[in-house]
TrEMBL record:
Listed Pfam families: LPD1
Native organism: Marvinbryantia formatexigens DSM 14469
InterPro entries (UniProt xref): LPD1
Region annotated Disordered, chain positions: 652-674
Domain Large polyvalent protein-associated, chain residue ranges per copy: 533-613
Biased composition (Low complexity): 652-664
Domain of life: Bacteria
Protein name per Swiss-Prot or TrEMBL: Large polyvalent protein-associated domain-containing protein
Amino acid sequence: MADNIQHEDFGEKIGGAKKDLWKDRGLYVNDLDAMNEREAEKFVKKDNIWKKPDYQAMLDDGIPLGVVYFIKKARDGLNASPQYYRRDDTPEKRLARQKEYIQTVRELQGAVSEVRTVEDAMQVYDRFFVENGYLEQVQGWGSGIHYQATEKGRENPAITNKLSNTLMVRSAGYFERNFTQKAQKEQFGVSKDQKVPKGYAIHFNDGKNTYSKNNDWKPDTWYVTKGYSILQTNFETREAALKWVQELAKGRSKSGKTRFVPPQLIAVRRTGPDYRNGAEITGQHYLDTFGFRGGEFGNWMNQNDRQASLNMGFEALKDLAAALQVSDKDIAYQGTLAIAFGARGSGNAAAHYEPLRKVINLTKMHGAGSLAHEWWHGLDDYLGTKMGAKGMLSEQPRLYAPFQKLIEAMKYKPETPEQAVARTEAQTERTRKNAASWLDSAVLGSLKRHGNEEQMETYAVLREAFLSGEAGSVERISAFKKSVTGRVIPKSERERLEIFEHMLSGMQAQEAPQIGRVETDFYRNSVRMGKECEKDGGYWDSNVEMTARAFACYIKDKLPYQSDYLVGHADCAVTFVSDKDGKMEVLKAYPEGEERRAINAVFDEIVADLKREQILTHSDVTLPLPAQPLAENEQISIFTAERPSVMAQLAAAKPAEKTTPAQAVPKKSRVPEI
């Protein structure tokens, strides 16, 4: 690449990136003009409008504790996001409600932002509610002035009793009790390292009112309690007691979850065809070859990083087209997809797809290896729109039969004959046990009262015949009961027992157990991954994430060569967990073995069907760029010492984390290894 080439954002402006947002100043009503409907639903939140104040800075500036706490509670009194009435049933009405919410939040912010004393706090109620027209003061009959909601206040769902009760400061004494004292009790303004964990307390032992059975409780020491229980005594200092209780609470509340971040690849290798034909890739190549809508770079990515990302991403996308045997233009879903390199998230975050703006973001540190995973999310969203889903198609797979088949293949597989036998035997045993319980409750009690030993032996024989599913056994037992006790089995109980008789008869007649289905290891491990790792709440075992992880594995298996930037993280969803005996074992949240082959077969069907429906375009090969002659005195730079790679720069910044040296690229490869 010539030294004077500078890589900048290309194509259509994507919008919505961190560098373009209102995040520093907060959201205003006119900012909605630049948002689409989905973005407005996501971003119109209290925290995006009224940025969370720096309460500690207020305290440091000398504002009284109770006043700062009042400001916090006033802000907390607002709903976190707009509330809607049932009649807000069109995009236009919801937009109007969102604008109203932004305006309300801004008005409250203005009313409390200058509060510095108790007297100021007592004036906020009128400043916000009355001056903004939400309440009006009226003279009551035989009483003083009171407040009454106006139509504006009644129609605004953000104006709530909770907010009204918070802002109503009746007197200085009321303020002291409800704000200053509560702030002290909640340790508001106390730094995290000085906070006593919730539910615990630290007390001083003055030696006057303490009791010790062993007479070992020393005076002038500190002790820790939880509720009415004394947990530990005889701390020489409060700091020692605090440190002890913090460690105790940390251990007891620890969830055991770990944060899962795909490991950064030590080296990015590729052994496939030379699609670049020696050229350095530019943003224009992404527009011309794949039809991307646009592309962005993070402000903090230097030109070397940008070039590396462009080169590797281009080759990876070519590999993806080759694996699927689709047209290069299908990669951007016929011009609807955008791509970003390190522009739309933190460097420590994993790569991600943004459905609001239809853009794949590959972060500088962890983007390498996740391109196929994120591309599938984009396709999932694209197909969802085409099939009429409200969101990703994998979330509503019944709209498209091949997707429903994919979900079934990911989560379930046929039983083995041994599993079928074990399941059938267990079911039979459970049915026999339930049937015996119902029969005994209907017959046994009265037989014991009226029958003799011989009659009890007869019942045991009839009972076993019933449990073997012998036809007519219930009638014979009922007749036997009448002969002994004078009463038959009641009709309702007899009908229930006849159902059991029929079920047991069918079980006995079954020659071989029917093959059912069981959960796949992939599904079970994904569920457990959610319990072990920080992202839970259905993230790991969701259709959206399971299909993306499975697709990355599918592409890795389809390619006859290595393409790390595309699928280097396909098999990375791994963590260590302990079993019931405390032994460590490996947990893999991606498909393997026969399960993986079955899922891959369904992906084959999906791709073939999308081509038949002309949603994807079949192409046997993906062609390299035409060779470009070098300009005079120009040399093609392949990550020389003068231009270090992305990973080389990171390795220099974090030498302790990078101990494995990158291997040299074979001369025939022509592609960079970083």
